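Quick illustration, no need to memorize.
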Amino acid sequence: MTLKGTKFQIKVWKYLKSIPKGQVKTYKQVAISIKSPKSARAVANACAKNPYAPKIPCHRVIRSDGTLGGYSGRGGIKQKLKLLRSEKVAI
């Protein structure tokens, strides 16, 4: 699959594919993992612009306070919750 987006978005989306099913990371953890520790908000924006959901699993990224954040895929936040529950994430 050829990803179309900014360099930063593609970097984020590629990283999201490495988050195992049934696990979640925070936007901040993703930012640190892609070597941009101060870019948690930009990571959230890249997730929000992800046109490849749920193939690129932005639903596995949540806020640092444990709340879900948003979901760019069809069905919005309800779908994010449904996907996480189907992966046995305790949310």
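Helices lie at 7-16, 27-33, 40-48, 76-86.
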